[in-house]
Amino acid sequence: MPEPYYFAWHVIPPDRRKRSRWPANSDVCPLMNRQRLHFIALGFLIPGAVIAFAGTPPPTTPFDAITWRATMNRKPSRAIKMGSFHVRFEKTTLDDVRKTVGIGDIAHQGDAGASINWVCYTNVNQARVERIWIISDGEMGGPERRVTGISAEILPNGIATTDCPALHAGMKPLVLDSGLWIGASGSFIDTRFGAPSYHQGPWISFDYQGKAKGRCEGGFNVLNDLLLRLENGRVSFLHARQLTSC
After folding, report:
1. What is the DSSP letter of 25?
2. Against a cut of 0.90, is the pTM above it?
3. Which residues partner with 106 through β-bridges?
4. Residues 6 or more apart from 98 whose CB is under 8 A from it?
5. For 11, which DSSP code?
6. Residue 73 placed within a domain
7. What pLDDT does residue 165 have?
8. Are 9 and 16 in contact (CB under 8 A)?
C-alpha cells in the first residue's frame, strides 16, 4: 500500500518541488518548470493571452492538506468535457481553453509556489447556475499554464459576471470524463467510484497515487484526486486535479 501523501489543494511541498524537472521530448505530461514566472503588480501581456490580477478566485476547502492514504487503483478523473471539447489535465493549456470557448480572461493569484492561474465561467441552465474554474498551478502547470485541475459549484441565485462570463451552448454539457458532475447522486458516486479514500461530514475524497514512465529515478509520481461536497444527497461542489512530479 502506498504511503500517505501530503500536499495542499494547489501546492506540492517544497521538498518535492526541488526534485521536479521538465522532461524534454517526453510522453509524460509536462511537469513543473524550475524557472518561476515573475509578475509585476500592474500586469503584463503574453501573446495570445490576457492576464488579470483581479477576479473571482477558485473556492477553498476545509482541508489545508491531504494526509490520508490514496486508495484508488485508477484515476478518478482525467479531463472535463465541455461539449465536444476535452480539457485534459496537464496537457490542455488555459490559452487553449480561452481560445476554444472564445471568451474569458486568465486570472492570477499568489506568488511562486503558492500561485495559481485560472479561467472562470458561469454555466447557466434551467436546473441551476454553476460556476466553474479551470485551474493551472503556478509552478506545476509550467510556463504554458497547462490545466492541473478544475473546481465547480452551485451558485445560488447566481448570474454571469465580467470575470466569469456565461458559457454558450456549444460548450455544454459539462461533465468529467468519469460521467460525474454537479447534481450527481450519492448512489451514482457509489456505483462509479466505490468506497472513498476519505469521508468527513459532507466531504468525500477519491485519491489515486501512481507512477508514470519518465526521466526520473523510479519514474514520475502521479497524484490524482477528486474532492466532492454533498448536500441533500447530491454533489454541490467538486474539485478534480492531477499533479505529476519527480
Report:
1. T
2. no
3. 51
4. 49, 50, 104, 105, 106, 119
5. B
6. yes
7. 97
8. no
Rounded distance, CA 57 to CA 25, Å? 33
Q: Which amino acid is at 184?
A: A
Measuring CA to CA, how many Å separate 238 from each of 11, 188, 244?
A: 18, 14, 20
35/56: higher pLDDT: 56
Domain boundaries, position 114: 14-245
**Residue 8 resides in a domain:** no
Note the pLDDT of residue 11: 41
Instruction: Strands of 74-128 (E only): list them.
Output: 79-82, 85-88, 106-109, 116-124
What are 124-153's pLDDT values in tens digits? 988 899 999 999 999 999 999 999 999 999
pLDDT score, position 47: 42
CB 56 within 8 A of CB 120: yes
Q: How many domains does the chain have?
A: 1
Task: Say if residue 85's pLDDT is above 50.
Answer: yes
d(CA 75, CA 14): 24
pLDDT at position 5 is 42
Which residues have C-beta within 8 Å of that of residue 74, sequence separation ≥ 6? 208
Q: Which of 128, 226, 231, 121 is nearest to 177 (CA)?
A: 226
